[in-house]
Structure formats: structure tokens, C-alpha cells
């Protein structure tokens, strides 16, 4: 059996651990604990109880507090908080989701949308004395949050808001924590005062009493069994004229005076809405991180299995062949390992930027919006990767892969909804593309879901805005490269990055052109709809370029030459494989000759061949401790 | 909301119902029964008990007996038996698998490998008085059945076989029915007599007494929870010198005389082995059929949901837009519907051929082998389609798709192992390619798993054997076509089929060439391994050509002109989409210009656009009764 190169693996792991590597190391020591794993034999009642118990253990680690400003004024450390909690995805995704709901979503709403008058809740929720949930999605509206139907109508007579579900489709749905444990909900509802609608705001609404019974006017039901995540108690909430104090409006960005006068420092209602949502970016960042972690666990299991499982004799030697010695198996797993590396670096960069914005260290006014765009794109890339990679790992382990004791099916079932929650991947890809197509124009932010199409279709702008970043990077890579090498040599990083950037630019330009050309004939919706696959492809191309940049930056930080060389080969595989998957586009749009496309295909084969002896080193570099894999077949 | 055209849907349904449409109609009436659905809230103990109870209900329908020769000599009706049981996949896949194990695999082994002395078991197992299992796979060997390790050593002193598991890896594993219910196992083991190994044979081995306890020498354990199929009791069996009577050898193709003399009408041991396995083809046929059925259920649910769910306002009208009116949603679902049509026709053709071979109506000596090849290829196509389509349906239904009450996650979890069992899809695709690469040479059949590579690499043959069938079909289509139309017009069926056939031929020829060129340098295994992705692609191209032929044949049988026209549009979508997915290959190998490839992409968009108003008609044509969908969100 092959062995790993321990020192190289250690260097790679340190690189992938990123800016908060001490936090990760500390977490690894804490979470390698039997009590933190799920027990698939439990029914949902018992599974939910177990997760709640595990959360108390997690609360004792001191990680949670890092996510909140201290009472004494010390700032929060969001990068550390997100990183530490992400590590729980190595244990059990129900635990990770439920923790994310309590501390990330519910806690995040109080922290970021509340003001001093709500500070008292932070201690309560951090320590789990107050269990909460995040009641945004409704049965009728998930992606289209601006059109939620729940109302919160101010009554100046009693200085209360009346929270109400006016229609069956306004029922809050899929709400994690609602079915059993939450006592309070952060409810997103249309604020109405003085007879005027003011758009979606967030309110703290008590939903259960100390004994766990629904409070008057509140009707909670259980979503029951799901595809996975049995330890998360998803539920539905209906409000029938539920009265809450005026102070329960989370009033960071808008407030209602006792007499019902509405005020906000943000004039434009749409901008106010997006500012509100923008503060919740941590949720998307976290989902991407957890998806990435789950994919790393699955790949670690499948590659290790392929290093021990043999099938069919090699007629030349008479010995049975290891699965990982088959080309088809290398091609199944190693490019996915390469993409896990790429995405890990991209995730680190995302968390770093989030931390800078949220701690006020990055004060560029465009930074928040760029962060949201990056978080949306990477959430898509990570969850799509996890869904595909875990599926491939299951199949690559055959019948053994189907047994729960080998974990892959649980990883698959638990992560399956990640492509949906915190923003459906199709909708998020469109969001990314929208910013590209409208050149990040300020006014677009304030338009409704498809209003941007009208803008994009009627306003002539240079949609490929100046990308000083990518240009500088390409120049830097060129300067560093060997000048005697052919300018078009695809093994050069600058050429690779240029190709990714060119593809993105071309797609964005032509999509914008198409929108404009068609909008006159058909109206914006038809124009948008006819170009939708094109628009989505532009969004995806943008995400892939962004990930490659992060990979290149990440490699530059690796000091050890051997580890850096290996990471460079992994990066080549990521690039070649991504090109191979899109080679039809590159050829059809004359960015690549047929001969070069064939060379790319051969290149993938050569690269998996070259990386195959290092497979275990790469897996150890992914940073999931072997003892935490807990797949019976690896014992 | 759109409506369906009832009369067209009825015509399409009749066409897809195929040669045994009366059997399907009869089954539809029987199985729309609450008692036949799974209950996801049950633990595995209760789920297993429920399935066993359901099987007694199924046994009362009289379908099972059709799979066996009658005592009075009337022949079996395998086409009807396979078709009727397939319909249970609309209800619950645990029920379908467990039924398949009992009647298809265990019963099939007794029926096809046994002789008159085993006839008494048939009645017992058909009526469920005898519960059995099919113990082929071992922990160490699944795909490589020829190298199973379990031994059955003949002892002339007592006229018994001694069944034994000599190593930990020889343990029978994943055996459906073994963990709780089976009293007897059809055990595949290396027959040893007179000190000589005779290869893998099948033996009937009692494993449990009436009280359900392991018999002496038999140690059974439970595989426990799996990704899905909770109602199937998969288990592991270890044999410690278990003695069974000589008569328990299923002796259709080989026998051992009381004194230990071995005899067989098939001289060549390898050919004997393949003849044995070949009789079990019904298993692969059935898995493909059930996968197809599950995909039809999922697509029926997702398309109906997309016809009622709205999200985001159309800025032109102010109304919220149906999901199915989005181009991206049409592109997600409608090509999958088209492929379900294609595969349904191909499955009908497969079952028809199986029926002819197994009832002795097709006596062409090549028919059995062609049937096995077709069954392997279609099993791959159907299970790959089901895995992808059900996943897409889940995601296309968002959060609602993740709730068990909407069935998609259960369909996903239950079918996930279909790509693995009855032959791993990668191994089966290789099997298909192997026959193509060696031009179905008789001698190849007798070579071990990779021995064929040496053959293919060293023997010069015209690997693209005469395909009179496809040539005739292309000519017939041409004759029927409008002669004024451009010969290269891709909307013509003959041009489409030619393109699929050309791709297959080219891939097969070049793969063979590559094997030959490389084998001299590297030896057969390396040559095979370096070409493995190419070989697999050739197998896939063959399968796609075969499916298209069946689709064309199936359409020709539709009498109603409107239904036929619609089916033709669906066929176009299947063709265009398949080409689009492979367009890089077509361009790179000069089978298609860049301009034509772009036209294909536009063609897919135009076709989904044209089919969109007929979506419900197409779904009803798929033949899953609306009342059987049982997805809460459609209520």
C-alpha cells in the first residue's frame, strides 16, 4: 500500500487551514470526541435530543462568544467563529446546522439587526438558555424574500406589533429549530405602520412557553422526516394576530416611534432591504464552508478505500489491482480532490474578507457588496461540488459505500439540501451574473428581482468593468515566468488564468448584448428568459475564475518547495479538468484549437497519473484527521 | 395552469407500456393500494416486517407464477413476470428489491440452474412458504465473481458438499434477505471434487431453522442501516464446514456423481461459468426497469410541482411566474423527460428480446450473448439516468423536495445503489465495450477479466462488425424522408442515427487501435489502463446508439398522428440534448462543425420551448397514475 509523505502533508494542511489555522488545530483536538458524532440508529425524536445535548458541549468550548461583540466593547472575531463551527461538519451535519441556526442565523440576526436594547439576548442565546430560530422562508416564498406575506402591523394604542399570517402560503416553513426546541423566532415580516407598508423587517417573536407549548396565537407543526439532517427539528409556524412589544423590532436600520412614526437612516426601501439581508452574509459563507468540509470527509474515505480495495487480477502480474491504480478510478476521484484544494483556498479568502468587512477593517464602500457576491458564488461552487463529489465517492466505494456504517450515504443525505438553503443555487448564480451584467451599478441594487433585466437591457454600459486585480495577477505571473516559453503555453499559470478571465469576459459581454438586442423585441422577461442559460453560464465562469485566483494566491503562501510543487500540480489538474469540462465552449468560441483541446484531455490523464502516488499525501493535506473518518470499512 | 391533452397522453402511455401493456394496466389497478406503500417513519425492524407482509399480498396476485415453468409443462412467461413486478417500483423500492431477491434472483437460480429434482422448491418459494436469498457477492469480491473464495468441497464418503468460508474476505456480504428472513441461500462457491477446483457453481444451502436461528456452522450478521431500502434485510453469512446433500448442487450445467466424478455438457470451464451467469440476465433487466420506473415517478412529481409553484414576479405582467416557465427549469427537467421516453422504449425492446430468448422462440445462438450485452448496457443507462434525474428533481423542488412527505428523497436514497448492484456501472460499461472491441469473438468469452485485453491487443479483427440492423434502419429512414432536404440536415432522423452510429464506430476502431499500438510497449494491463476512459466512452456511445434505435422503432408503432408527432419532437430533444452533452467530442473529431454545434444548442432551447405547453401531456404519457404520486405538496 502507498504511504503518505508526512512532512509534505503537514505543509499542505497548514496552507489549507488558512488564516485561522490555530483555531482549526484547537478545534481538531476538541471535536475528536465520540459524543459529537451522530447516531444513525436514533429516531428523529432521539436524534434531535442528542444534537441539543451536543450543542451544550460545544457551548462549553468558548467558540461561540467569538461571534459576538463583547459586553465590554471588545469586537467580535467572526473569522474565528465561522472557522471553529465549520469544523463540526467533520462530526455531524445535524449538529452543524442546528448550531448554525442558533448562533449564526438567530444569533446573527440579533447581533447584526438589533441594537443595544437587544444585547441582553446575546448572552442568553450564546449559552443556550434561550433557544431560537430564524423564521424567514414561507411556504409560498423562499427565493423571493422581498415578497414575504407575513405582516407585522403596528398598533400605537398598545405600542405593539401584531404579527400575522394572512394566507396559507404565508406560513413560515422549513424553519430549523421550530418544531421542538425554539422559544423565540426572528421573524421576517412586512412592517406596516400608519396604514403604510414599509417592507420586510425582522422581529423577535416568542413562540413557546417554558413548558414547550405554543404561545397563544402561535400554531407550530413539524416538517417531519427529511432526506437527512435528522437531528434538526424543522417546523412550520402560523401566526394569528400575535402581539409583541414595539421593542422587539430589531431596529438597527429602521425604527417605529411609540406613536407609529417610521424612521430609517436608509431612505430607499429596497436598499434598506438589501442592507438588512447583507448583514446576514455569514450564513452563506458558513454553508459553503460546511459543504467543503463534508466533501473533504467523503473524499478522504473514498481515496483511502481505493488504496486498500483490490479487484480483478492484472494478467501481467497475477496480482489483484488496487482500485486507485485504475485510470477510471483516478479520473473519478483525483480531479475532485484537486477541486477540494481549489475551493478550500477560495473559502479561506472569503472568510478573510468577511472578517475584514465585519470587523470594520475594510472600509471600502464596495467591499460589502463584493463580499456578498463572492459569498453567493462560492456557496454555489462549494455545495455543487459537495453534491457531486459525495455522490461519486459513494459509487466509487460500491456496495460498501451504501452501508451507513461507512458514512458516505449520511454525508450525501445531510448535505443534499445545501444546494437549496441559504439561497437556491440557480437563483444565486443569477445574482452573481446580475452584478456582472450591470457592472455593479448602484441603482440596480434597488430594483426588484427581474427589474435589473430591464436595466441591463436598456442601459449601455461597459459590463466588463475594470478588473485591475486579475490583470495585475496575470502580469505578475508573466513576469515571474520563463520568457523563453511560448506565450500560449497552457502549462503556464498566466495563460491559464487569462483563459478563465477571457471566457468570463466574453460570456458577460455577449449575454449583455443579447439582453439588449432582444429586449426591444420581446420585453425584458422574455429577453431574460431566452438568455437564462447564457446568463447562468456567465455566473459560473466568474466563479471559476475567482476560485482559480484564490488557488494561485494560496500556493504563493506555501514556503516549502516540495509542498508548493505538489500544490502546483494539483492546481494544474484543477485547471485542465475545468477546461476539459468546458472544452466545447472553448473550441466553439475559438479560444482553443481542437489540437489544444486534445492536449488538455491528455494532460488530465498525465496529471492523475503523476498525482496517483501522492494520493494519500494529498488526502492528509485536506486536513480531516484519519481518526475522525469513522468508516467501518477502513478499520 | 396548463392542462394535458388526455387522448394524446393515452396514446403515448399505450406506446410506452409496450408489448405487455395489458399486464401493466392490470398491475396499475392492483397496486394503487395504501397497503403497498412504504412508511418512512418505521424503524428497520418494522420496515422489514411490513415489506414481508406486502409480499404476501403481491403473491396473491398470481403474477409470480408467470416467471416459472408450470408443473404441467406450460412454459413460463418471463416478459409478463418482469413487467408486472417492475410496477411495484411505483409503490416502494424496498418491496420491489425484496420481491426481486425472492422470486427473481433466488427463484431464478432454482428455475434456471436447477433441474427436475429442484422443482419442488418452486411452489414453496413462489408462495413464500420458503424464503430465500441469493448469496453471490463476498466482502472481497463483488464485480470479480469468478474469483469468489467460498468453497464447496465434495465428500464422497457421505455424499455431501462441505460449504466453507476460508477467509474473512470470503464472507457473503450485502445479501438481501439474509439478515432476518431467508431460510435458504443460493450460494455461489468454488466446487472442489477429487481435489480439483471446477469453478463457481451454485448450491442450495439451508441457513436458518424454522425458529429463525442460524443453523449449525452458519453465522449470519446484519449489514444494518443503509442509504435507503430500509425494508430489505441485507446480511452477511459465514460458513464453517456446513454439510449439504449432493443433490443441493443446482445441476443444470454440471453435476457430481455419488463417487465424486464431475461432469458437464460444457467442456470449457470459463464458458460454463458464463453460461451459468447468463441465465441470470433477468436480474439486470429488472434493475434497469425499476430504475426507469423510479425516474418516471420523480419526474412526474417535479414537473407537476413546476406547473403549480410560482416564484418572482414577471415585471411585464406583475404576475408571479411558474417555475416551468423559466428556461432554466425547462432545461433541467424536459430533456430528462425525453430521456425517460427513450429509455422506456429501449427497455420494452430489451424485455421483448429476453422473453423470446428465454421462452426458446429466438434460437439464434448469438441471441443470448447479444441479450446479455444489451441488458448490461441498458442497466447502466437506466440507473445512471435515475441517479441523475432524481437528484435534479429533488433540487428543482427546493426545500419542499427535501421533505420525505414529497417522496423525492426516498426515491433518491432507495435507487442510489442501483448503479452498483447487479453489476457496477463502470464494470458493465467495460463489458459492453469488450464485446465491441473483440468483435464478439467466441474465444473472448472464455478469457478472464482482463485477458480479453490481450486478445484485443494482439488479434487483428475488424472490430466494427457488420451492423446490418442500423444500416437498414438508416436506409429505411432515408427512403421515407423528403429527398429535397439537405443530406446533412440534422433534423432528419437518418442523419441523427448516422451520427450516433459514426461516433460509436469511430470510438471502437480507435480504441482497438490504441490497445494494439500500446500493448507492445507496455503490456496488456498498462495498455488497457491507459485507454480505459476511451474504452468506457466507446461503450457509452454504443448504448446511446442502441437507445436511439429503440426510440425510433417505438415511435413507428404509434398510430395516432398527433401522438406520433409529439413523440417525434421528444425524440428530437433526446437527440439534440445527447449531442449537446457530447458536442466537444463531435467537434474535436470533425463530425460536426462549430456552426452546427451552435445550432444544436439553439435547437435544444427551441425544443424545450415547443414542448413546454405539452409538459403535462408528456408526464401523463409516462404512465405513472397521478394518484400514485403521493407527494404532499401536490395535494
TrEMBL record, chains A, B:
Keyword terms of this UniProt record: FAD, Fatty acid metabolism, Flavoprotein, Lipid metabolism, Oxidoreductase, Peroxisome
Q: Which SUPFAM superfamilies match?
A: Acyl-CoA dehydrogenase C-terminal domain-like (SSF47203), Acyl-CoA dehydrogenase NM domain-like (SSF56645)
In this chain the Acyl-CoA oxidase/dehydrogenase middle domain maps to 133-242
Q: Which residues form a coiled coil?
A: none
Looking at the UniProt entry, the stretches that span the membrane are none
Q: Name one GO biological process term.
A: lipid homeostasis
Task: List the protein's name.
Answer: acyl-CoA oxidase
Amino acid at each position: 500500500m502507498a504511504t503518505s509523505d508526512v512532512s509534505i502533508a503537514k505543509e499542505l494542511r497548514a496552507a489549507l487551514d488558512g488564516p485561522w489555522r490555530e483555531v482549526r488545530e484547537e478545534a481538531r483536538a476538541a471535536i475528536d470526541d465520540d459524543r459529537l458524532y451522530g447516531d444513525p440508529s436514533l429516531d428523529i425524536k432521539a436524534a434531535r435530543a442528542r444534537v441539543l445535548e451536543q450543542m451544550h458541549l460545544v457551548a462549553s468550548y468558548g467558540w461561540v462568544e467569538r461571534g459576538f461583540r463583547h459586553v465590554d466593547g471588545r469586537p467580535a472575531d467572526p473569522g474565528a467563529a465561522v472557522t471553529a463551527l465549520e469544523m463540526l461538519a467533520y462530526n455531524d451535519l445535524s449538529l452543524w446546522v442546528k448550531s448554525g441556526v442558533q448562533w449564526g442565523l438567530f444569533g446573527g440576526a440579533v447581533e447584526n439587526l438589533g441594537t443595544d436594547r437587544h444585547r441582553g439576548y446575546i448572552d442568553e442565546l450564546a449559552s443556550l438558555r434561550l433557544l431560537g430560530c430564524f423564521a424567514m422562508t414561507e411556504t409560498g416564498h423562499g427565493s423571493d424574500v422581498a415578497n414575504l406575506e407575513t405582516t407585522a402591523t403596528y398598533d400605537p394604542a398598545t405600542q405593539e406589533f401584531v404579527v400575522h399570517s394572512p394566507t396559507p402560503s404565508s406560513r413560515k416553513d422549513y424553519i430549523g429549530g421550530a418544531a421542538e426546541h425554539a422559544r423565540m423566532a426572528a421573524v421576517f415580516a412586512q412592517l406596516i405602520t400608519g396604514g403604510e407598508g414599509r417592507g420586510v423587517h425582522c422581529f423577535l417573536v416568542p413562540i413557546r412557553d417554558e413548558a414547550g407549548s405554543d404561545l397563544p396565537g402561535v400554531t407550530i407543526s413539524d416538517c417531519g422526516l427529511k432526506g437527512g439532517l435528522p437531528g434538526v427539528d424543522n417546523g412550520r409556524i402560523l401566526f394569528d394576530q400575535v402581539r409583541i412589544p414595539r421593542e422587539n423590532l430589531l431596529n438597527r436600520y429602521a425604527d417605529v416611534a411609540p406613536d407609529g412614526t417610521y424612521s430609517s437612516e436608509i431612505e430607499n426601501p429596497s436598499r434598506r432591504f438589501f442592507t438588512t439581508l447583507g448583514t446576514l452574509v455569514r450564513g452563506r459563507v458558513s454553508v459553503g464552508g460546511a459543504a467543503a468540509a463534508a466533501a473533504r470527509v467523503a473524499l478522504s474515505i473514498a481515496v483511502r478505500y481505493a488504496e486498500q480495495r483490490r479487484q480483478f487480477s492484472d494478467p501481467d502480474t497475477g496480482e489483484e489491482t488496487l482500485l486507485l491504480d485504475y485510470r477510471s478510478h483516478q479520473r473519478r476521484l483525483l480531479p475532485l480532490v484537486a477541486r477540494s484544494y481549489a475551493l478550500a483556498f477560495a473559502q479561506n479568502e472569503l472568510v478573510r474578507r468577511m472578517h475584514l468587512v465585519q470587523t470594520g477593517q475594510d472600509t471600502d464602500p464596495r467591499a460589502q457588496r463584493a463580499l456578498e457576491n463572492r459569498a453567493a458564488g462560492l456557496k454555489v461552487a462549494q455545495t455543487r461540488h459537495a453534491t457531486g463529489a459525495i455522490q461519486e465517492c459513494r459509487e466509487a466505494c460500491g456496495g460498501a459505500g451504501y452501508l451507513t456504517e461507512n458514512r458516505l450515504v449520511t454525508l450525501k443525505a445531510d448535505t443534499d439540501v445545501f444546494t437549496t438553503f441559504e439561497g437556491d443555487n440557480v437563483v444565486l448564480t443569477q445574482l452573481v451574473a446580475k452584478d456582472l451584467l450591470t457592472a455593479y451599478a448602484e441603482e440596480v441594487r434597488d430594483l426588484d428581482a427581474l427589474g435589473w433585466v430591464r436595466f441591463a437591457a436598456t442601459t449601455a454600459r461597459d459590463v466588463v468593468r475594470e478588473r485591475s486585480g486579475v490583470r495585475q495577477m496575470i502580469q505578475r505571473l508573466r513576469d515571474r515566468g520563463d520568457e523563453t516559453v511560448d506565450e500560449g503555453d497552457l502549462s503556464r499559470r498566466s495563460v491559464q488564468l487569462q483563459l478563465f478571465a477571457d471566457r468570463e469576459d466574453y460570456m458577460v459581454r455577449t449575454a449583455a448584448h443579447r439582453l439588449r438586442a432582444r429586449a426591444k423585441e420581446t420585453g425584458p422577461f422574455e429577453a431574460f428568459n431566452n438568455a437564462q442559460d447564457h446568463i447562468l453560464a456567465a455566473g459560473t465562469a466568474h466563479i471559476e475564475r475567482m476560485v482559480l485566483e484564490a488557488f494561485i494566491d494560496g500556493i504563493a503562501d506555501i514556503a516549502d518547495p516540495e509542498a508548493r510543487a505538489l500544490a502546483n500540480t494539483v492546481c494544474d489538474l484543477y485547471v485542465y479538468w475545468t477546461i476539459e469540462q468546458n472544452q466545447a465552449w472553448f473550441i466553439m468560441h475559438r479560444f482553443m484549437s481542437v489540437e489544444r483541446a486534445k492536449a488538455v484531455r491528455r494532460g488530465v490523464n498525465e496529471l492523475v497519473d503523476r498525482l496517483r502516488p501522492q494520493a494519500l499525501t494529498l488526502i492528509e493535506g485536506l486536513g480531516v484527521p484519519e481518526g475522525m473518518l469513522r468508516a467501518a470499512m477502513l478499520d
